[in-house]
Specification:
Blueprint: E1 2-5, E2 11-17, E3 20-26, H1 30-39, H2 42-48, E4 57-62, E5 67-72, H3 93-97, E6 101-104
Antiparallel strand pairs: 1-6, 2-3, 3-5, 4-5
Pfam families: AtuA_ferredoxin
Domain AtuA-like ferredoxin-fold: 4-102
InterPro entries: AtuA-like_ferredoxin_dom (IPR056362)
Amino acid sequence: MTRVQLRHLAQARSGDKGNSVNIALFAPNDDVFDALAAQVTAERVKAHFDGLVRGEVVRYVLPNLRAMNFVCRDALDGGGSATLRMDNLGKCYASNLMRLEIEYDGEPARPGGEPESPCSEP
């Protein structure tokens, strides 16, 4: 098995509401979804955001959409109107999650399902 960053396998989108962050993770096919469902757990997401997400992380699995939704509570230091953080929004959390590595034995794919080109960015 090879360790692969999520950015080579999936797509994500995130946003914020108050002091919570919502991250949606989408797989391009069933094989990738199965690997994500087995390895991208609420506990791993919370550990990945150690120091940023202080509350619980809840994972909702949507197999018919090959997607997962993570709700991260107490993640924005009080929310937009209360925090002193420079970036008080949750929009950057999806990009950050894409650096998480999982074990995957298939071919890395771009989100559209195409094999990754040897000329792609690292």
